[in-house]
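FAQ
Q: What does a multi-component entry look like?
A: The components come first, one per line:
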Amino acid sequence: MSSNAQKTGFGATIWDYITTVDHKKIAILYLISGGFFFLVGGVEAMLIRIQLMKAGNDFLSAGTYNEVLTMHGTTMIFLAAMPILFAFMNSIAPLQIGARDVAFPFLNSLGFWLFFFGGVFLNLSWFLGGAPDAGWTNYASLALASEGHGIDFYSLGLTISGFGSLIAGINFLVTIINMRAPGMTYMRMPLFTWTTFVASALILLAFPPLTVGIFFMIFDRLFGANFFDVTMGGNTIIWEHFFWIFGHPEVYILILPAFGIFSEIFAIFSRKRLFGYTALVFATILIGFYGFMVWAHHMFTTGLGPTANAVFALATMIIAVPTGIKIFNWLLTIWGGSISFTVPMIYAVAFIPSFTAGGVTGVMQAIAPLDYQLHDSYFIVAHFHYVIVGGVVLAILAGTHLYWPKMFGTMLSEKLGKWTFWFFFIGFHLTFFIQHFLGLMGMPRRVYTFGADQGWDLFNAISTVGAFFMAVGVIILLVNVVMTTIKNERVGNDPWGDGRTLEWAIPSPPPFYNFAQTPLVRGLDPYWIEKMEGNKEGMIYAEPLGDIHMPNNSFIPFVMSLGMFVASFGALYHLDGDKAWALPVLIIGLGITFGSMLVRSWKDDLGFIVTKEELIADQERIQREAQAREGGKNGGLK
Amino acid sequence: MDLNKRYTPQTWPDHPETATLEGKNKFVGFWLLLAAETVTFASLFATYLALKDKGPSGMEFTAAGLFELPLVFAMTMILLTSSLTSVYAIYHMKNHNFKAMQAWLGITVLLGLTFLGLEIYEFNHYVHLGFGFTNSAFSSAFYVLVGTHGAHVVFGLSWFIALMLRNAKRGLNMYNAPKFYLAALYWHFIDVVWVFIFTVVYLMGVIG
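Then the predicted structure of the entire assembly, as tokens:
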């Protein structure tokens, strides 16, 4: 039963990953597919920048440009940034609270496969008649007029992957509420766990409005409803509201886990307890709370009236306060610390000014009258890339380096990591800083070209050069990943040497049951406490070594998600008239999904027991491997 | 968890739904799901109110002209009663009285099916009057709001029936007790949503 390291064939490995319910393996699935979509979205970004390299360029047609632009935003937000963060949340958060798995391992797998099939469905639009072309915001007035099926791929694909996100959110919440080890009180939880918690709460409450809005879009386009059709009494502003009631919390869903990763990094590499832990926790909660009260600042120019604009402008400015609290706490964590500038730490230090710049332009846009000038200009593009790239993407890159050893048991090269950093960081500022000025000079966003007489040539050319720098950085990262994997130099529990939280107290990667014995948590930074008290064993434990109950693998999540994927094709084509197969396909797909749900609840699935003897044997194997590694190192030194 | 462990009403815990870690997880997770469902229905209600009586110029149907209370009132009473009978079922579940639980769940399902039948009749009636899904923004909003509730009723009934059939020969144990409990919780949620639909759509609709 145990999945101890045995040599298995390629097919068996694939089958293992398709059916796995282990949060650490699901995390790897999220990281690989999120990483893949990150590259796809990156290629789309390069296409955009190449098109805008010079005035009157005809590299892309206007229609293709709209598709590339839409897919770049949609892919990066839904299929790259969120899943990669989910990878860290899945891999690390359960370890940080001392849990053996998440609360719902089966649902964890289901959440991943829904996201995966949703993302694949959305991207199949490229090959099946054209991608969506109404922007990632998909405003109804544009989307209803869009011909072909691009918008329908968007609606159905995001519905499926949205269900996956919702399920993942509920799972993280319940895991953190119910599965904390003894002594792990809420106010001892590591910041990354806290931000996972709050981001999950945002997912829980923000995704339903998006799903409702998208369902209206599906009904309007595919089933003849009239929610957004003004001639039939509909109202296109409803879409804008639902999209942004979702969309604004969504940016906090992305940035909060990023804040969490950086909080961990600052503490580890300054070798200091986080400054103002309590303030950081409450700032996180406040940001989550305010996140739901500011959506209409995306709609200042829609015409909601001065009262609504004033209220939403004020609410938006208030968010700068808890965010500022965080920035100062991080600075004071570094202050006086014993700093080591590893790759994650460099990213973290670079993040502070970059993200603050994005935050400051955000407050500028919160001033509604000024926003009338800035709206739909490149200033906005510069702003949200400063917060998303300067915040989220830097956190993803930092987190990849920080947690790579915990996820895969090998260290990424620090040298190549620094090369990636410098190319990416310089490229990022080169690309986006100048876009502020393009915006102020009047360049509108979402245009596929501009004239030679408009004076935007030079700045656009510079911006494109920056994009190539970022691409080089990402390619170096890929080389780094390949080289590290081939070298396969295994590392121990705490490869950074200064780990503070529970995940660093167990092997890298951890055994499938995580903790042979549930640890006892005696304070904030529990592993650091044990280190400071000279505990050679790593942790003290809350229970004697005994049998462990673990969940069974299951193929059902994959099949359920596949059913939704199949059904989506039926829904997409059923209005076409010449496709009689569409309606049966819709019904069969839904039948597969609900049928597998029934099978799931019909069959008892009680999991399996890892016996005490198996545990002892496995722990001995881990120790032998660790000793062999140490021996090898010493031999190397002689 | 040992499925073969036999319980008596004396050894059966007071709160079997949260007596195991799995049960606790399901309990918390389901309440969170209901939070998401609440937001979903809030969105649908908001849309309905925004689009109420909105349609192309010269639209025939408005809420005041279309809805009639007697049938809907009967539906409301039936659904509220079914919520009460599901409470009885869970009362017997907590006392480890499997047969009584199954019987009350059976009554709940029958009441639910009656409600569903009347709703189908009601929709059919409107469609025959000419008030179809694609008529106007109002009709779309109405059918999606009330229809989403109806879909929840279908799902809740399927859930009850599956649980009853599945466990007919097994009786109650710690593995299925949380499932019965949560199905009943879901049923209450559906009921609460209907109270809002009755008020916002029908009562406020007739008043005009």
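Q: Is there any commentary attached?
A: Sometimes. For this entry: The interface with chain B takes residues 103-104, 166, 170-171, 173-174, 177-179, 204-205, 207-209, 211-213, 215-216, 219-220, 223-227, 229, 231-235, 238, 242, 245, 598, 601-602, 604, 606 of chain A (CB under 8 Å).
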